[in-house]
User: Which sequence fits this backbone?
């Protein structure tokens, strides 16, 4: 059986061979070999048997030009996005309903209702005379002026932050586990004589006083002091 | 090559495509009859595995049947459109497998060695040469394999192959020449 290479293809290969210095006959022979190899290949019975199922496939898109089947990957992506959105909404709702975000919103709303500035300064204390949320002191940041704090502030245990106090009452007896004398909360320790009375700082004092960590000598020693 | 030639197909395809676009299933069935063998040969030359080639060819026609409503005669010719779908299915298959194609086994896909009147010894020699050509094809670049499969296995014309590859006919002609030259060198090395 002679390989059925089309005449125009054979001529094309021959011309290309001549133009490039290759042997035209070899190129034509190679093209014929490839075509003959292809001619040996018959369609498998399985593929022919699929003809009926292929043309019996849903054809609504043939006449309308629209795909009716939703791609599975797109559907999976949409379901995943919906699930993530729902989880995010639940998480935000839970934080607003029970967490500190809710308290912050309460403070904000209460401040607006009482005529206070809606957004206080960055270091200004809460304008409310009875703060609903006492900042939790830490051992390395003893709160200033907590002796003037209202009595109900004592309901918060300064060490654990748990209202009502912890089961272990901290003492400053020798041998107990206080971190250090300087770390004691000033509210529970005996008031020590201070060279400068430490009134409760007003809102206008905070940004300019330079008091850091409660040290009264901090303004003099700060690098921002003039003349240094 | 069995089946109608590309000139015969070109005469009947416009009417069949138009009827299939209007929902005539049997018209698409006749399109399948005309093209399933060239598509299968092309896919087999690209992927090597007869089973994979059968599946990919079937997927090609399923996709073509689903998309024939969007085919426009203003674009590339129908053959180019159909073989673009086949190329896309082959690419999907490659991405899925992450492996290099294996050369097709001519004896596995064309077992009727004694079916013709040709001398058996000549048939064996000829088949050996064909198998060497197919083996050498697997060492060519992807574009070179593609153009050889389209031109010599699927039997597409230069213009149809250019449409399927998305290139100009002149570029396809150059690519084909480089592919045939590289194939010849490769067969000489393997000899």
Assistant:
């Amino acid at each position: 059986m002679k390989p059925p290479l089309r005449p125009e293809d054979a001529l094309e290969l021959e011309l290309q061979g001549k133009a490039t210095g290759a042997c035209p006959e070899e190129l034509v022979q190679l093209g014929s070999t490839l075509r003959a190899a292809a001619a040996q290949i018959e369609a498998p019975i399985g593929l022919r048997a699929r003809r009926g199922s292929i043309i019996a496939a849903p054809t609504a898109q043939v006449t309308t030009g629209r795909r009716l089947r939703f791609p599975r990957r797109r559907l999976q992506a949409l379901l995943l996005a919906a699930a993530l959105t729902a989880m995010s909404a639940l998480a935000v709702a839970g934080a607003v309903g029970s967490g500190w975000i809710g308290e912050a919103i309460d403070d904000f709303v209460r401040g607006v209702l009482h005529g206070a500035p809606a957004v206080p300064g960055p270091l200004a204390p809460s304008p409310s005379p009875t703060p609903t949320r006492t900042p939790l002191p830490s051992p390395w940041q003893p709160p200033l002026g907590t002796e003037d704090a209202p009595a109900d502030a004592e309901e918060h245990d300064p060490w654990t932050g748990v209202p009502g106090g912890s089961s272990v009452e901290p003492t400053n007896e020798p041998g107990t586990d206080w971190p250090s004398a300087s770390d004691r909360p000033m509210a529970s320790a005996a008031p020590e004589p201070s060279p400068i009375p430490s009134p409760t700082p007003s809102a206008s004092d905070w940004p300019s006083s330079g008091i850091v960590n409660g040290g009264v000598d901090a303004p003099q020693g700060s690098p921002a002091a003039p003349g240094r | 090559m069995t089946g109608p030639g590309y000139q015969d197909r070109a005469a009947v395809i416009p009417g069949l495509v138009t009827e299939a676009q209007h929902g005539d299933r049997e018209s698409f069935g006749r399109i399948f009859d005309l093209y399933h063998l060239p598509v299968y040969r092309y896919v087999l030359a690209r992927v090597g595995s007869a089973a994979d080639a059968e599946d990919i060819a079937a997927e090609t026609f399923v996709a073509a049947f689903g998309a024939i409503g969007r085919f426009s005669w203003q674009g590339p010719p129908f053959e180019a459109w159909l073989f673009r779908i086949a190329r896309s299915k082959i690419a999907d298959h490659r991405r899925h497998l992450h492996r290099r194609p294996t050369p097709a086994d001519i004896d596995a896909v064309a077992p009727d060695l004694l079916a013709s009147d040709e001398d058996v010894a000549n048939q064996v020699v000829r088949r050996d040469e064909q198998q060497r050509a197919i083996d050498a094809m697997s060492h060519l670049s992807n574009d070179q394999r593609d153009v050889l499969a389209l031109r010599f296995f699927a039997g597409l014309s230069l213009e149809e192959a250019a449409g399927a590859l998305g290139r100009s006919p002149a570029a396809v002609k150059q690519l084909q020449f480089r592919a045939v030259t590289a194939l010849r060198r490769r067969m000489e090395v393997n000899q």
Notes: The interface with chain B takes residues 1, 4, 9, 12-13, 16, 20, 22, 26-27, 30-31, 33-44, 46-48, 50-51, 54-57, 59, 61-65, 67 of chain A (CB under 8 Å). Residues 97 and 103 of chain A are 9 Å apart (CA to CA). Chain A has nine helices and no strands. The first helix of chain A runs from residue 7 to 20.
